[in-house]
Request: fold
Amino acid sequence: MKKRSPAIFYGLIIAIFSSFNANAAHCDVNFNYGVIIDPSHLRIIDHGQTIVQINNDQQLFIKGKEVSLNQKQQQILTLYAQGIRTQVPEIVAIAIEGIDLGLKAVNKIIGGLTGENSAAHQKIQEKFADLQSRLRLRFNQSAQNFYIAPQDFDDFDEIIAGDLEQEIQEIVSESIGTILNAVGDAMATSDDDDIEQRVETMAARIESIGDNIEIKIDKPADKLGIKTIQFCQNLILLNDKETSMQQLIPQLAQYDLIRTSLR
Reply:
C-alpha cells in the first residue's frame, strides 16, 4: 500500500485543537511583569530581577529595600497580595485544564486511527504524558509554588496552547511511521478487496473521529471559557485594588503589574 501524506493527520489534529482554542475567552488585561509565588514570598520580576517583594503578605521590599508601612498601607498591601495569590494559581489551573483538554482530544484522534491501547497508541501516549509534565513545570514547580511570565491575557488561547501545536506536530512527525503502519494494517485486514473503497472507508473514519471529538470537547471548552471570563473580571477588580494601593503607597506607583484597557 502506498503511504499517504501525514498532512491529513496534522490537518485533523490542528483543526480539532483550533476548534477548542476558538472557544477560549479573551481578556483585555495584561501582566506587565512576571510573578513568582511561594508560601512566604510574592515576587514581581522584571527581566529576571526582583523589583517588588512582599513577605508573608505584609512586609514590602522595593528593589531589596524595605518600605516602612503604616497600618492602613499594610492592610491594603495584604489584600492585594492575597488577591495575587488567589488569581495566579487560577491562571495556572485554567492553562493546565486547557492543555489537558487539547491533548485528550488529540490522543483520542490517534487512538481512533491506530486502535485504542495498541502498541502505537501506547507509545504516543507516553510522549504526550512527558509533554504534559513539561508544560506543567512551565507554570509551577510544586503545589505551592507558581510562576507566571508577563502575559497579554487578550490572547488567552496562546497562553493555553503556547508551543503546544508545534510540539504535537513534532511528536506526530516522529511517530508518523508507526501511525501509518497501524492504519495500513487496519486497512489491510479490511474485508473490502477494493483498494479505493478501503481508502474512502478510512477517510470516512477519520472524518467521523473528528466530528465525535468536537462534540465531546464542546461542553468542557465552553465551561473553560466561562472560567476564563470570571478570572478576567476578578483581575479587573484586582487592578482597581492595585490602583488604590499605589495611591496609598506612592513608591509602588511606577510598578504597575496589572494593566487593563481602562488604564
